[in-house]
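job 3f2a | input accepted
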Amino acid sequence: MQAGQGDGMELYHNNMSVCAQKVRVVLAEKNLKPIEHHLNLRAGESHTPEYLKLNPKGVVPTLIDKGEPIIESTVICEYLDDAQPAPALRPDDPILRAKMRKWTMIPDTGLHRACAMVTFAIAFRHQEQSKQLAALSPAEREERLERNRLGLDAPGAAGAVLHHVKVLDDMAAQLAKTAWLAGDQYSLADVGVLPYVIRLEHLMQSWLWEDGGKRAAVGDWLNRSKVRKGFAGIAAYVDPKYIELMTPTGNEARPQVEAIVARGT
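job 3f2a | predicted structure (265 res):
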């Protein structure tokens, strides 16, 4: 596989999906340019019979390489680092690689679910479409409608906010000791959590690490992440319509988020 081309790769993704952002950061770091298929998730394009044959979960992203579908964003990122070893996004040292994997597991063990809750509670509840709700089970539909009505007062929403804060605190503690999350080398550890910090920024909650507070190291890390070429995997795909929604709803939600954080600390 030569750098600068996807060597027959195809990527099924969505511009604002945090999981797809993660994979696109890796692709951009490695200068790989697969054929892209953008799916409109709100229109149900990830649940068509054709796509479900590739990804039975009906989620994005899905990478096709050498005719084989590869699913789960964390798995895809490691696959890309195996298939295209340079530039390496995993440390050579086994201990540091284990530390890296601790960070890459964080989205899959709670942060992703918390992100979905916070995003919907603040912003997406204002635009959810009936077609999306129709795809849910009755119990899931009822839970979603209740969450949409209550926003940050919905059951679990405060816990989801505090889950983000705990991750930010853990990041700040690590970044006080090392330049990047798994040591002195930028790695899949940083890639794994970057979209979730960006989501908070898009939701106007960057005050959590700004103003020179105890999480200032997260802000420094974010600034350094943004100047890497891999950040194009996020920045080049931002949908202005989403920002137009997230900006006012995020600003409106800030006092409530601040109150949740104050109660939880």
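job 3f2a | The chain has two domains: 10-83, 94-228+239-264.
job 3f2a | closed
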